[in-house]
Amino acid sequence: MAEALKNVIAQSLECPVCLNTFTDPKILSCSHTYCKTCLDNLLECHGNDQMLRCPVCRAETQVPNQDVGKLPANLALKSLIEDVTNQYQFCTSCKSEDQPQAVVYCQDCGMYLCIICHNKHSQWPNFISHEVLAISEILSGKVSVRRYRKCRKHPKEDEECFCSDCRRFACFRCVVMEHTKEGHDVIEAVVYENSHMKSIEDLKSKADKKRSCFQKYVDFIDEQKERVSNVQKQCTDDINKAYEESVRQLTEKKEILICEVKGRIEGVQNELDEMKKSTQEHITHLTTIADVVTNRTKVPLDMAALAAHDTLCQDLQEALKREDPDYKQPRQSSKKGRSVSFKKNVGMDELCLGEIVNTVAENIALPTKDSMNAMVSTPDGRMAVGCSKGGVEIFSADGQLKQTVFKDVKICGVGFLSNDRYVILDGSNNISLYTFEYTKLNVMFETLNDDGGWASLTVDGDDKIYVSYMKAKKIQVFSPAGGKVIREIPYDVGIMQITSYNNHLITRSWFTIQLVDKQGIVNFKLTELGCFTYAAVSQENTILIAKLKHDVGLVSIDEYTNELKHVQNLVTDYKIEKPKREWYYLQQYRSGEIAFCTRDRLYIFH
């Protein structure tokens, strides 16, 4: 009876959250008690709010200044723990009234043993494998005693059953008397324990995966912050260079401009910091509550511990429901920051240094100088630039050169079939097909070769290949199977560039853009005297037309309907670095950026 009482007392001294003996016990307003460390973790799990919810009864307690240490201590419980810890443990094997002090505890027998009993115990062959703990190690906290679960109502009975509806362990007698009514689901205690441990392992695995997912999101935000920081550094360097070339009187203006850049970039940085902070708080929340739930060495036994466990598991399940991070928001914020640039004043009023503007276009130097011959959007949303000196250079929407292919082929035109195969028109006006892995296919086409003069290429939605000729003044149509032409379309002028558009073709000749059907009949026409014109199909299936004042290096881009009626102006008189030769191309990325290419440079308008 005394041993059963000790077990009851020992269970009463366990915290319902960590299942260990209370350390620095604190009382909530609902009268439930927990370790101070456990309450600190619970407060952190709920975003460090000043309201703390009890895991057992879910009543809320006000935490002054978010400091759990200011909650009242359970002095009576603390004193009882000290008394139990400091009292001697007597041998439970000796039968005499004057029981000697125990020196060890046998985990398998569940008994405290004095020196004499311990010597006898160690000599029995059947007891040699038993786990024996020294009392000194138990009192120091280095090891913990594995207690046997005894029924409080029937101390001699083990609690071998578990009622899922009452959420409590019970002995067989209690099951017969209290848990046989309809609605009581009674299972073996060991079955519940196995299921409980499996659910903890599953939760820990899910928490680890979710934590990894959000950590990748934080890493991505850091990458975006670094890119934005690089823009700030570049802008600051440009401003300083312009300042050094000017007079001392520009100091005030210089500081104003730097502050403006800093203000714009810091606004973006703050957006990214808020995203990062929110995500890190969620990671901390996941980590803390997952550790509280999963880092257990015991199964909760009484109703309070079970209630606390259920609440914590529910909190973790709610945390796991949060959707995975959306990378679109930090990417958009980063893009906004990267659009900031410094525009130096050139002209009479240079004392103003310049101004901070949103970048109209990214200006990228082509690796192969004075060589661009063609440009087309790739099936995966990038931009392919064909070079007359050899190769197709592929750029991402942010202007990064991703790869160069067909380095030994002098490119005159590039297109793509619906199965992503490349269609290449070389410098001799020969057509070749390549797989998306850049393997040349054994398909021949009977083109006009050099006899047709300068040629341009496009591919329509039905995989028909169109080749226009400047000198021959005609358009040849081929099947991707190769061989002879399917038909020829005569044309009244030499065509410099050709683009497929719905059931029509867009042709370009000097200052004129024409929309013709596939029999060669001109449906609509647009002429801009004094400006070279270049056309492309937009992602909204409208027509984009670039107007180039070659002599002064100014480009404007406008949007038109399928009848060449003006819709809106997109770019006005953007200054480009004037190339040696007049040859330009216009295209649009799938993501919306407009690409304008000269013989030497690629401009990407956002």
Summary of the model, kept short:
With 606 residues, the protein is of the alpha+beta class.
Give a written overview of the molecule.
The chain has 606 residues and is of the alpha+beta class. The chain folds into three domains: 1-87, Herpes Virus-1 (2-Layer Sandwich); 207-357, no CATH class; 361-605, 6 Propeller (Neuraminidase). The protein has ten helices and 35 strands. The strands form eleven sheets. A four-stranded antiparallel beta sheet has the order 13-35-34-33, with no helix packed on it. Strands 14-15-16-17 form a four-stranded antiparallel beta sheet, with no helix packed on it. Strand 16 (392-395) and strand 17 (401-405) form a beta hairpin. The chain is elongated. Mean pLDDT is 85; it is low at 1-5.
What ranges have pLDDT less than 50 throughout 5 or more consecutive residues?
1-5
Kindly state the percentage of residues in helix. 25-40%
Give the class from helix and strand content and strand pairing: alpha+beta
Rg over alpha carbons: 40 Å
Which architecture of the largest domain does the CATH hierarchy give at level 2? Answer: 6 Propeller
- Tell me the strand order in the biggest sheet: 13-35-34-33
How confident overall, as mean pLDDT?
A: 85
CATH T-level topology of the largest domain? Neuraminidase
